[in-house]
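# nightly structure sweep
# worker-07 picked up a monomer target from the shared queue
# config: single-sequence mode, recycle default, output format = structure tokens
# input follows
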Amino acid sequence: MRRLLEEVPRWLKMAVLASVVLSWVPLALVAKARFSTSAKPRLHVVFDMDNQPKLKAQQANPLFADDREIRSPVPGTVPFSATAPDPAIETGKKADGTWVAVIPLKVDLAFVRRGRDRYHIYCEPCHGVAGYGDGPVAQRADALQEGTWTQPASFHTDLVRGRPSGHLFNTITHGIRNMPPYGPQIPVRDRWAIVSYIRALELSQNAKLEDVPPQVVSKLK
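# output follows
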């Protein structure tokens, strides 16, 4: 065997050795590409959809009339991991278009207290602490007597007390007369919490003696 190797020409031995070494080069390049980073994109044999024209955030897009690249979600869009919204909760209306009579969420003390907190922030300036429409903004407007002010509604009239809870929720969401819409500012659950507190205010000013727990009645006498 050794004699056979000695008979092989030297140039042939060098050619074989060079071929073996060169065969390692692709493997080395593959290993480098696999375990290192680069600012240059990889070589794409099939482009698929990796490289295509695009617009980044805040860039203008002449395809749309408003030239905005960022588009608002289509109405009714639901996040992939979320469930479909309940129309009664989202709009205050049933499937047949009538108002929801009662609050379609679990109402407990914590829920009403949350509504009280939100009420004091968003509603009290106009509707007042007790809901009679006599908040500081309303009082100031009455003092100015400019003729452009619409008196906020009192929650203690027969008209407002008789309105379904869905109607109150819709008013908070979309506004009414001079009242602006608060839908963009107040989350859905907080809007219902405010409705629950308004109902509590209504009851506090129009309750009957039999509505009061017996242990409380004894303290009032």
